[in-house]
């Protein structure tokens, strides 16, 4: 078990990549605080972990709120005495829209969740990890940070911002034995996928177009990212910090 007795917080863990990662971390022996803005989704993931014999607790939190970030860090430490992994994964997508038609409130919402949410998580998690002289702060970025697609400028900019944040935080945290790493998934089969395709539901045409842009010839499954998150959270990745790890079947080449 690669995360035996570690304590992990996963945000956006009610669905998709976050849910798969919370399950995978629990399978590897971590005690996981499952965090999402959607209460029912939190309960579902906690139940799945417990059913599989893992240890988890749930917390509804909005990552855009400072008090919620502070509270989830405090809950994990109060319950399990430490915090080894914080996976800042919650995010929101963007409908394909040219810049002249993007509303200012769309920018504010995307940056509130995808950038401020990640920044706030770090603000409260890193002091705990620095004090322990151990910890890993993981961030879900996107291949759009490196190789954007037309009409996704606002989302791409938010995901680029957290790659730079990753590098800056990694330098701050390194003298304290703490690592900070970003993960950049290509299109992944989660409820978010149709939005990127500008469709209500994923269809053959959308899939064909997207798959054609991935040299390995398929999209990610949430498990592809969960496997990466477990590896990066574990001591197997002890020399990886400040990196943005592309999980993209070659999309960014
Ligand atoms: N699916 C893809 O194609 C893809 C590709 C690259 C990157 N990503 C990124 O992966 C991450 C996970 O997305 P996913 O694909 O699993 O999508 P998803 O929609 O399945 O899951 C996102 C989860 O985040 C939660 N969430 C949204 N706003 C929140 C907030 N303010 N506070 C707390 N929780 C909140 C949602 O309730 C949801 O459960 C996101 O950061 C997303 O931008 C996704």
List its salient traits.
253 residues, 45% helix, seven-stranded parallel beta sheet, alpha/beta
Describe the structure.
- With 253 residues, the protein is an alpha/beta fold.
- The chain has a single domain, classed as NAD(P)-binding Rossmann-like Domain (Rossmann fold).
- Helix content is 45%, strand content 15%.
- The chain is built from 8 helices and 7 strands; from the N terminus they run E-H-E-H-E-H-E-H-E-H-E-H-H-H-E.
- Strands 3-2-1-4-5-6-7 form a 7-stranded parallel β-sheet, with helices on both faces.
- The longest helix is centred in the middle third of the chain and has 29 residues.
- The chain is globular, with a radius of gyration of 17 Å.
- It starts with 6 loop residues before the first strand and ends in a 6-residue tail after the last strand.
- The model has no long low-confidence stretch (mean pLDDT 98).
- Nicotinamide-adenine-dinucleotide (NAD) binds next to helix 1, helix 4 and helix 6.
């Amino acid at each position: 078990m690669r995360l035996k007795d570690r304590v992990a917080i996963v945000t956006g863990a009610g669905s998709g990549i976050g849910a798969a990662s919370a399950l995978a971390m629990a399978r590897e022996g971590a005690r996981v605080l499952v965090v999402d803005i959607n209460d029912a989704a939190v309960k579902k993931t906690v139940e799945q972990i417990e059913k599989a014999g893992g240890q988890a607790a749930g917390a509804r939190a909005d990552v855009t709120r400072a008090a919620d970030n502070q509270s989830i860090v405090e809950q994990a430490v109060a319950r399990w005495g430490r915090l080894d992994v914080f996976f800042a994964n919650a995010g929101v997508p963007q409908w394909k829209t040219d810049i002249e038609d993007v509303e200012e409130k769309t920018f504010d919402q995307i940056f509130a969740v995808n950038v401020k949410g990640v920044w706030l998580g770090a603000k409260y998690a890193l002091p705990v990890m620095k004090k322990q002289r151990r910890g890993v702060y993981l961030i879900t970025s996107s291949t759009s940070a490196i190789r954007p697609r037309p009409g996704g400028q606002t989302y791409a900019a938010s995901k680029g911002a957290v790659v730079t944040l990753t590098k800056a935080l990694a330098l701050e945290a390194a003298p304290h034995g703490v690592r900070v790493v970003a993960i950049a998934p290509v299109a992944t089969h989660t409820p978010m996928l149709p939005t990127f395709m500008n469709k209500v539901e994923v269809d053959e045409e959308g899939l064909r177009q997207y798959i054609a842009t991935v040299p390995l010839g398929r999209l990610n499954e949430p498990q592809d990212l969960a496997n990466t998150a477990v590896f990066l959270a574990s001591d197997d990745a002890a020399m990886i910090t400040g990196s943005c790890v592309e999980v993209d079947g070659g999309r960014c080449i």
